[in-house]
Amino acid sequence: MRAFVYSMVMVGLTCVPCRAEEATTASVAQSMTAAAEKFVASLSPEQAKITVLDFNDPQRLDWTNVPKPTRKGLQYREMSPPQRELCENLLAASLSPAGHAKSQRIRSLENNLREGEKNLTNGHLRDPLRYFLTIFGKPGQDPVWGYSFEGHHLSLNFVVKGDQVFADTPSFWGANPSIVKVFVPGGPKVGVRTLVDEEQLAFDLVNSLNAAQKAKAIIAKQAPNDYRNVGKPQPPHADKEGLSAAEMTPEQQATLRKLLVVYSGHLADPVAKLRMQEIDQAGIGNIYFAWLGATERGIGHSYRIQGPTFVLELVNIQADPEGNLANHIHSVWRSLEHDFGVTAQK
After folding, report:
1. Where are the beta strands (DSSP E) in the chain?
2. What is the residue-averaged pLDDT of the chain?
3. 288-293 and 301-306 as β-strands: parallel, antiparallel, unpaired?
4. Which of 30, 128, 215, 296 is most buried (CB neighbours < 10 A)?
5. pLDDT digits (tens, 9 = 90+) for 204-213
6. Would strands 144-151 and 74-75 be described as parallel, antiparallel, or unpaired?
7. Among residues 345, 335, 344, 346, which one has the least CA distance to residue 165?
8. Could you tell me if 267 and 228 are in contact, meaning their C-beta atoms sit under 8 angstroms apart?
9. pLDDT bucket at 6, cuts 50 / 70 / 90
C-alpha cells in the first residue's frame, strides 16, 4: 500500500502539481466564484458568521451524508427566497444541468422519508429544506476558496484555486427510495428512479462477466453495511480488489468507462471532462472492479471501482420507508489525489 503525505492547497504552502489541462475549468471556476460572491453579499452579519469560514477551518473536512441534529453552515430553510435562488445558482454553476436536477430530486425524496418515518424519533430530520451551505475563504478575494453543500443523501465539496476548479470531492449522492413506489406530496412520481444508470450499468457489467472473471470480480457474497470511510476526511487507501479492466473485453471496458462518465456527468462539463482525462491518462487497464453481494435487484449489493486517481463505491442494502429491500442507495466518489483540495504526495 502507498504511503501518503497530505498538504493543504494554499498560498505559502508547498506548491502542488497541476491537474492535466487545468485551463479547461476556468469558465466553471469563474461562474462559481461569481455565484458565490453574490450569495455572500446577500448575507446578514449574523448569517455571515456561520456561513463564511476560514479556508483552514477544520469544519471544511467534516462531512457526512448521515442525518444529524447539527451541521455547519447556513440552512436552506433559513435562507430568504432570493438567497435560495442564489444558492441554486452556485450549485448550477458547479454541476451539469442533469446533475443539478438530480440534486434537487434527491432533496425532494426527503418528503418520502418524512412521511414514512414520521413516527420515528429522528423523523423531523427528514426535510428537503434541511441542507446547509458553507463558504470557506472569500470568493473573488482569496487565491483559494471552497464550499460545501450538504444534508442527508447529498454532500458536495468543491475547491477553486486561482482560476481553476481544483477539487470536486468528496462527492456523495444517495437516494431513498431509489425507486419510488408510493407517491408522497412534494416527492417524485411513482416509478421515478434516482441514480438509475449508476446502478444499472454496474449490473450490466457484472452480469456480462464469464465465470473466470466473476471469480475475481465478486469478492464477497454479502454486501457491506455501507461504503468505507464514512465521514472521514481521507479516502480509503486500501489495495485494489476484484477484476482489473485489463482482463475485460473491449465491450466490458466500454461499459465500465460509461459508468464512470455517468458519475462524472454530475459535474459541469469542463470539470467532468477533466476528471475523465485524469482517468484515461492513468490508463483504464489500471482500474479494478469489485462486486459484493447479489447480482440481481431487490437483494443487497455493492460495488467498488478503484483506479490510480480515484475510488468509487455504491451500496444498496437498506430498505426504503415501505420496507422494500435494497431500495436505498449510497454512492460516493473520492479522489486519491486531491480530496477536499488536499494533495496526496507519494
Report:
1. 5-8, 52-53, 74-75, 132-136, 144-151, 154-161, 164-167, 171-175, 218-220, 243-244, 288-293, 301-306, 310-316, 329-335, 342-345
2. 91
3. antiparallel
4. 128
5. 999 999 999 9
6. unpaired
7. 335
8. no
9. very low
Of 191, 215, 184, 179, the C-alpha closest to 291 is 215
Distance, CA of 166 to CA of 144 (rounded, Å): 9
- Encoded amino acid at 166, one letter: F
Q: Which amino acid is at 113?
A: L
Q: Which three cell numbers stand for residue 254?
A: 466500454
Residues sharing a CB contact under 8 Å with residue 171, sequence separation 6 or more, in sequence order: 155, 156, 157, 263, 266, 267, 332, 333, 334
Selection from 305, 189, 297, 293 nearest residue 252 by Cα: 305
C-alpha cell at 210: 464469464
Q: What is the pLDDT of residue 40?
A: 98
| DSSP symbol at 165 | E
127 to each of 98, 110, 205, how far by Cα in Å? 22, 5, 35
Task: Report the sign of the C-alpha dihedral through residues 197, 336, 107, 32, in that order.
Answer: negative
- Nearest alpha carbon to residue 305 among 247, 340, 256: 256
Q: 3-state class of 158 per DSSP?
A: strand
